[in-house]
Amino acid sequence: MALLAVLAGCGHSATRPSGALAPPPPCRSAAPAVGPHFITGTLTERDNGAAICAKVGDTLAVFLHPAAGASASRWSPPALSGSSVLGFRPLTSLTLPVGVTGALVAAQRKGVAGVSSRRDGSSWRVTIVVR
Fold this sequence. Notes:
mainly beta; single chain
């Protein structure tokens, strides 16, 4: 009987009940907004790897700058993971400096999603925690 009790517990962890959602990662606020009044925060290369907090209805501006030098390559257009949590807004209200890759990302629903881009073997990714 004791052996059965010990074997029943093998291979199982007691972290969360089945079906329970993991808590969102800790996050920080985005840098202050740059641009029109509806932008609530700004993301740049300096935010690479960060988890950023947002509220449903927030719009975050993404500005990724080219590397220094005459042959600098641009970042790819940002991509979203968790597209039901985040969505793109049109960039029609912004004029970007030459070489800057930009996007407006809207927090549509509560949850966790990512924004990412690539350039010459480098990658940029930010996790957005929408509360």
